[in-house]
Amino acid sequence: MGLRGEIARDMGGHGEVAVRPEWRRLVVCAHLRRLAASSSPILVGPWRSEVGFEALYWLPFLRWAVQYAKLNPKRLVVVSRGGAGALYGAPAVDLYQLRSVEAVRRENVYDWTRAKVQKQMRCTPWDRDVLREAAAQALGRRERYHVLHPSWMYWALEPFWEEHRGLRHVSSMTDFAPLATPPVTDVELPPKYVAMKWYDRATFSRADAKVQEAVAQITGIVGAQTHIVMLSSGLATDEHADFEVQHPRIVRLPVRQPDQNLWLQIQVLGRAAAFVGTYGGMAQMALRLRVPSASFYESFGGTAHAHLSLSHMVGIKTHVPFLTGNFEDANLWRQIVSVPVAGDAQNA
């Protein structure tokens, strides 16, 4: 049953699903105190979900957990992917050194087929195998360790995503201190640039001619003012295929090995003057890196309003502009704040 189920039973429930939202923080805190009572290493992960959830929830949840339980960061061994383990401030093992990109994607697809949600709601046998291999690599085969799996975060914050609880619930188990700007060490970049990433998702279909036209127009406007660095991975890590965008001032990144590809994008994003692109994970990562962003959706379906609400709250609290909306929203802003050319005022 596990600790969550045991405590749910003791509280009068009949399993994890019976735990009332306001009790979930108590259960998580009990688990963290159990970890704090030991001196054994703690394997954190493996994280194989979206970059947006990592930036907006998992990293803030871990920061809160370490502070709440006064965990020694030296006890942590992080398992993330694409080099993003460098964000955690702890030793890291990269998932793509243990499994191929295709194998990780297959496991995520399996999660979807089983639960109709691509979230790590439980520690799967696949995850446990990865953790054993990560422990052997980082700690040695004989050392005992604890696990802080993403399912704890997903379970704790689920009432917020399901709109049963508001921002106070998620704020009680997260710490949104900005992420440190990572250094860019071995890629030649323009002195000033906008990071850009356009990709296909439920809210922003590249099959839509109107979307393609708008992307080309926005890219042209930005490119007329500064260089653009495209945050394209060159790897099929998920179903979000990149748009094909052309402009003379676009700089394209080299394709790195899977265990460093995402980290290169994060490094470049952290040094950008702004981010422009599809609303989603990279816009949320820009927010956490204190990079202003303007991101777009066409129809707000297939994603939760809770993520957008939290992003806006974090932007306000950290004083980082986070603009997002559809093309009609963008046209309204343009009409209000831009200086009209001759004749436009009479035709408005």
Tell me what the structure shows.
- By secondary structure, this protein is α/β, with parallel strands linked by helices.
- The strands form 2 sheets. Strands 7-6-5-8-9-10 form a 6-stranded parallel beta sheet, sandwiched between helices. The chain has a 4-stranded parallel beta sheet with strand order 3-2-1-4.
- It has 14 helices and 10 strands.
- It has helices spanning 2-10, 21-36, 51-69, 95-98, 101-115, 125-138, 150-161, 167-171, 209-223, 258-270, 281-288, 305-318, 327-337, 344-347; strands spanning 42-44, 76-80, 92-94, 146-148, 193-197, 227-230, 250-252, 274-278, 293-296, 322-325.
- The protein is globular, with a radius of gyration of 21 Å.
Jot down its keywords:
single chain, 348 residues, alpha/beta, six-stranded parallel sheet, four-stranded parallel sheet, 11% strand
Alpha-carbon distance between the two ends: 65 Å
Overall mean pLDDT: 88
In terms of DSSP E residues, the strand content is: 5-15%
Quaternary: single chain
Question: Topology, pairings included?
Answer:
Layout: H1 2-10, H2 21-36, E1 42-44, H3 51-69, E2 76-80, E3 92-94, H4 95-98, H5 101-115, H6 125-138, E4 146-148, H7 150-161, H8 167-171, E5 193-197, H9 209-223, E6 227-230, E7 250-252, H10 258-270, E8 274-278, H11 281-288, E9 293-296, H12 305-318, E10 322-325, H13 327-337, H14 344-347
Parallel strand pairs: 1-2, 1-4, 2-3, 5-6, 5-8, 6-7, 8-9, 9-10
